[in-house]
Amino acid sequence: MELRHVRGAPAGIEQHELKNLPSSETPAKITVIDYSPDRAETQEVKDIQAFITQHRPEWSQAQGIRWINVDGLTDMKVIHALAEKYELHPLAVEDLMHVPQRPKVEPYPETGQAHGRLFIIARMLRLVDDPEGFAGKQLLGEQVSIFLGHKTVLTFQERPDGDVFDPVRARINTAGSRVRVNDASFLLYSLLDAIVDEYFPILEHYSDLLEELEDQVLEDPQPSVIERIHTLKRELLLVRRASWPMREMVSGITREVHPCLSETTRTYLRDVYDHAVQIIDMVETYREFASGLTETYMSALSNRMNQIMKVLTIIGTIFIPLTFLAGVYGMNFKYLPELDWHWAYYAFWGICFVTAGTMIWWFKRRGWI
Amino acid sequence: MELRHVRGAPAGIEQHELKNLPSSETPAKITVIDYSPDRAETQEVKDIQAFITQHRPEWSQAQGIRWINVDGLTDMKVIHALAEKYELHPLAVEDLMHVPQRPKVEPYPETGQAHGRLFIIARMLRLVDDPEGFAGKQLLGEQVSIFLGHKTVLTFQERPDGDVFDPVRARINTAGSRVRVNDASFLLYSLLDAIVDEYFPILEHYSDLLEELEDQVLEDPQPSVIERIHTLKRELLLVRRASWPMREMVSGITREVHPCLSETTRTYLRDVYDHAVQIIDMVETYREFASGLTETYMSALSNRMNQIMKVLTIIGTIFIPLTFLAGVYGMNFKYLPELDWHWAYYAFWGICFVTAGTMIWWFKRRGWI
Amino acid sequence: MELRHVRGAPAGIEQHELKNLPSSETPAKITVIDYSPDRAETQEVKDIQAFITQHRPEWSQAQGIRWINVDGLTDMKVIHALAEKYELHPLAVEDLMHVPQRPKVEPYPETGQAHGRLFIIARMLRLVDDPEGFAGKQLLGEQVSIFLGHKTVLTFQERPDGDVFDPVRARINTAGSRVRVNDASFLLYSLLDAIVDEYFPILEHYSDLLEELEDQVLEDPQPSVIERIHTLKRELLLVRRASWPMREMVSGITREVHPCLSETTRTYLRDVYDHAVQIIDMVETYREFASGLTETYMSALSNRMNQIMKVLTIIGTIFIPLTFLAGVYGMNFKYLPELDWHWAYYAFWGICFVTAGTMIWWFKRRGWI
Amino acid sequence: MELRHVRGAPAGIEQHELKNLPSSETPAKITVIDYSPDRAETQEVKDIQAFITQHRPEWSQAQGIRWINVDGLTDMKVIHALAEKYELHPLAVEDLMHVPQRPKVEPYPETGQAHGRLFIIARMLRLVDDPEGFAGKQLLGEQVSIFLGHKTVLTFQERPDGDVFDPVRARINTAGSRVRVNDASFLLYSLLDAIVDEYFPILEHYSDLLEELEDQVLEDPQPSVIERIHTLKRELLLVRRASWPMREMVSGITREVHPCLSETTRTYLRDVYDHAVQIIDMVETYREFASGLTETYMSALSNRMNQIMKVLTIIGTIFIPLTFLAGVYGMNFKYLPELDWHWAYYAFWGICFVTAGTMIWWFKRRGWI
Amino acid sequence: MELRHVRGAPAGIEQHELKNLPSSETPAKITVIDYSPDRAETQEVKDIQAFITQHRPEWSQAQGIRWINVDGLTDMKVIHALAEKYELHPLAVEDLMHVPQRPKVEPYPETGQAHGRLFIIARMLRLVDDPEGFAGKQLLGEQVSIFLGHKTVLTFQERPDGDVFDPVRARINTAGSRVRVNDASFLLYSLLDAIVDEYFPILEHYSDLLEELEDQVLEDPQPSVIERIHTLKRELLLVRRASWPMREMVSGITREVHPCLSETTRTYLRDVYDHAVQIIDMVETYREFASGLTETYMSALSNRMNQIMKVLTIIGTIFIPLTFLAGVYGMNFKYLPELDWHWAYYAFWGICFVTAGTMIWWFKRRGWI
């Protein structure tokens, strides 16, 4: 348990810090979704060279929107091919590859040879089941880099092992859904909304843990509680570090004046912004609550120490004088008159009980027992 | 007691976090109040379909204001019917249903087919009697969503079990009251004022509790005090989390330039804003005060520990050397000259009293007794 | 002492929170001062109805300034009469009656039927002697509401038991004083200056107390010290809660563009603003200092505990082994060779002294004695 | 030592708070320096009346700059004479006499009868040797009030016992130095630069003390350390309280558009501003460092307590059971078989050593020894 | 180890504070790199007088960029020669020589006789191996002063013992690299990027240490841990003090409108800015984490104390009453009936075991064992 916790630790802090450049080039998984108000089609791209030379299907050319999702950042061929085809700015490409970056939004203006695009970095958090992890879960962070064009959205994810976009995909495949009838920037909104909404169940999980820890602190404060509070605070620190720049980023998009961003999307993004603010509120509240728990735990510990001290004091106070008395009558003085008294032994016990009784009464009065 | 506290806990944190979508569709309670400077009428709507096809009463058409209040958010038919009739923006409708949202104000501009409306989310706090709750009360939070139109105000409450709007209703039914002679936005002001004013008795309740806890800490610091401080801090955390965005929201309305908002209302809203700021001041002061109490409690605890240690030390210091001396004269050495002395036993007691007296005098001088 | 402190407590927190609406209507005391550069006259108004129908004295009509001061907020007749005569805004009248409000400034623009006035709420703090209070003093807070017109200043105080305006009155009665030769807004400045300047002796009182408490903490940390620090922190919390909005209020006036405010007054108000900032600086410094004192007290307590523990340890370490040895030679084994040795008893004492000496030397070396 | 510290204390806090109006009027010391690019002359003024009626020396009339420095604020005649001659604003004169004021800058615009001047209040800190003071030094704060005119600079210091302007005087007396060839505002810059630069050696002094205290905390944490940290924190609090408004004041000057301020001076003042920011950085870092030291000290104290407890526990654990055993064989039961065994005594010692050995081994394993 | 730590300390705090003016003038090392898109040449300058009179090589005159790097600030001749040749502002020259300055950017506008230049102070941090240092490393801070002209970049470093610019030099020497084809301000970007990027491995080093310390705190909290946390916090304080002004400085450059700064560079500098923000985020997170560790350590310490207390209590509780009983039967009363009972001795042992058993059971139930 100790060890797991320790092994789990780097995953927590490190994953956000280290530039993990994997050793072997695993192939990236590319999924392309074309949709227009009438139609939606999903294809998986195997051959990147063939793909970038193809044109869009005819039905998609006028109104259609293309979403290209790339899972995995190690296949340089794929990234370079897409960067070239979609004229992505070299700095943006560097940022998407050197994870982790801080969530941000950057406009790249239309130039002679490059399309104007909005480049967005978001941080996707997920809680996955992990028997080794803290409270049976592990917090995973992943960078999602998004390029928004007029009719194209490119997203790049770090790892191929799942994301939070399934509801978006479902809505794209539903005829008449809002995402189908709106423009590309609405897809951007949908993706950001899906990312931000995933923070809520994570926080609810931590809220449940906090409740549980509070029960333990108030009822039976074990040393292991403080370790769990410690770990919880640390995970909240990570969520907080992700959520503050997310808020700034969303707020940055709403302030951005960019041809790719429609007014409708801007209205909807206010909602994402509100959610990001709410998440920060929750994180800060939980963090303060966890700090309060630590304080309460420490005072519970002091209380317990006090209680133990009381027992010690009571025993000492009662028996030490009596033991002294027994020692006195164990002395071998030749002339020790009490030894010869007939009722001395019974008188001794009498003194003992009276002394002990008086002391116990005195302790009760002082509120020590 | 322990258990109640624990069971009560989720009600505190969770209620603000969880999206509680009730399982069964209980019918919503709809109350409609029409009023003009001359007249006021209240009706309860049973059949929503009939209602939305009716026109307003004739006397109300020119000058009259209609306030529709919906209690309960589970009857989708009602909400959709009203949303359609009053052309509410889908995002706003989503926000009103997915409680809890952060208090906020959002203008929806007049478009071709939708009226321009101001959408406001407020958080209503109430303290209700609850023998199971903390200090016999339970803090309830409820979201109130308000749509302000030119002559119509719609309010949606989460639960049908009471609200803080009775003073507003009374004033509407009073001929010549300010709310009767003003426009719809003045009703909005009255509602927000009622919500914000309800925070004051809540804070006074906590102020009383703080006074009480302070007495306990200074006079008789029991371990249960720290639990109560802990719970109080937590409830203050919840009030604070509600009041900060309330302030922002009210300030947002006063800055908003919207055709539905009259200049008079803006002047009156400054008052609501002042109250919101005052509430935040109070919450922060109470929180600092509660933190100070925890510190004072911890030092009271240390003092008590010190006192117990003193008793232990005094007993040890007095009796341990004497017990050693008694042990010495209990030894069975053949050649132990003192044993044969005639006054040895009395000398022994003399030494005991002198030693003990000296020590007690020394402790007194050091200020330990 | 304990009890007094506790009874005194509500006076501290509560007075700022509770809307104290007194049960019986005690008559308000109204004092009117008319002055012009040449002349000043003070009258006490007994009959409010007669007063409001009178005109000003002739000499005062062109250049004269009238200051009406009302002590006590319970006589509704008086307040309503003045509100009607001077056309005070209903919201302002509400604010002045429902104490306590947060210090603030609100302009009421000139309308068809009402004069443009500046409405100001200030918080007056006074330390009055009170043998029951903390350190023989009690901190009283009182709301002063001020209406500034072109040639009239109205002030409303909560209680009739004294204020801080005597220096202002003296200056008005001094021919050639600055307040006499300037306009009505300069009187406003003088009043605010008097209120803010009264904060300084209060802070000096707390500064003296802090010095005294610091001496106690460093020289003889008694448990009562922490209670006094606790109370001091609390009073500082109250001063701080009054001074922050005072600063905002003064800064608000200097930014206000209002026909009643002259340029000269604005220049002088910068001085009041500087004083308010200085007060906040002092409060924050004292609060940090008090926090530091608590920490230092706690470590002094730990030191004392350590010292007591040392005594216990030394006694235990010296006597417990020796008592064991005495016990050994008190055993009744038939074959216990040392008992028959001739110098055994003297050897026993020798061992005792050598052991005790060695231990004391060892403790000295470790720095425990 | 205790007492000195206590007596020293008011000097620390009080000197910044109290308006010290000295009882007797000691004559102020007035020094006048005239300089132009070619020439510099210093004179001490004995007769203020004679001085204010004189004209400047001829060589100084066109290009010359006059710096009048007044040491001591108790000679009202001097101050009033200068205020009249140089048309200083009455509010500024009040501020310069009622020390301490918060550092600030205030422009007084040119009016019909008064020259436009810039009025600046700065806080000069000096560390002077004082065997009674903390670490052999005492921190002195003094207000310097500066009036900047076109060709005249007036400075007023609180006390005549030295200042930090000697380097400026030296540079004025050096032909070709920058201050000689620039205008009056450059002299202002030089004075502020001298004041701010004096903060650095003070902070270095505290930095040295912090290093020293850190050594003591880590190597031999004595109770006196905490008192010294406490005093150091307090002095840093004072430096901080001086340096924050100094930064604001300097920044205020650079933003001020005033005819007396040249562009060159503005460029140079950026440097003073940078230094003020650096000083605040240092103070904050030292304060955090001192807080860290307190924490480390407290944990060192706890460690020491733990160690003492360990010794107590070991002694108790080893000897108490053995003493019990010795007590058992000291009982006087008639039928106590072991007493008659031949090797019982040796067996007893054997048991003692084995028990003690086992316990010591067990403690070692748990890491308690 | 203690001592090293202490000796290492000044290097930490002091190096950032003290103006270290070395006693002897060691010659500065000057490296000049000329490059244009086609060509790059590096030369080391031995004779500064010869150098400043030379012209650039012909191929470099039109398009070429010259980077002059000076290592060591003690050779006044070199600095003055360069300052004269490149018309550096005297204030800037002072700032570059009086290390340490706070990182900043200052534009010096083009004047009649001086070129407009941008003057930048940056703080370079490096971790170098040092067996004496904390965790085998020492944190070195060095000021880098940069002058940006149209075609020239001058950099001044404090010490000649290495820098972080090797990657920049490598890229300059690579034909076709971005730095080769861009202007002088791009070289500035490259240098700042190299400086800021070096912060990341430093923070990763501290992150590793934090992980390690966390393991120690949770598994085996030794007193030395708190010293290491203390040192770590201190080093983070230094990194933080460097990184906040670095962020401001970079942000200042991006806001600066200066002819030497190209639009491309501005785009790239956003990246440096993002990294600086990320570094601050990391430092703050680590600092909070370290604070959490201290708290957790303190509670681990309390736990351990509690455990020791428990052992003491158990021993006391079990043996003290039994010892008393043994003392009773060691008394020498003539009439003590139990002494003559046949099974008394065995009954005594029975009582002992029953009492001890009961107590152990009771402790187990209370959760003390």
- How far from one another are the termini of chain A? 38 Å
Helix content of chain A: 55-70%
Determine the most extensive contact between two protein chains: A-E, 60 and 54 residues
Shape of chain A: rod-shaped
Rg of chain A, alpha carbons: 34 Å
Question: The biggest beta sheet of chain A, please?
Answer: 7 strands, mixed
Q: From the structure provided, what is the oligomeric state, counting identical versus distinct chains? A: homopentamer
Number of strands of chain A: 7
**Percent range for β-strand residues of chain A:** 15-25%
Characterization of this structure:
Five copies of one chain form a homopentamer. With 369 residues, chain A is of the alpha+beta class. Helix content of chain A is 57%, strand content 17%. Chain A is built from twelve helices and seven strands. In chain A, strands 2-1-3-7-6-5-4 form a seven-stranded mixed β-sheet, sandwiched between helices. In chain A, helix 9 packs parallel to helix 11 and helix 10 runs antiparallel to helix 11. The N terminus of chain A is likely disordered. Chains in contact: A-B, A-E, B-C, C-D, D-E. At the A-E interface, helix 1, helix 5, helix 10, helix 11 and helix 12 of A face helix 9 and helix 11 of E.
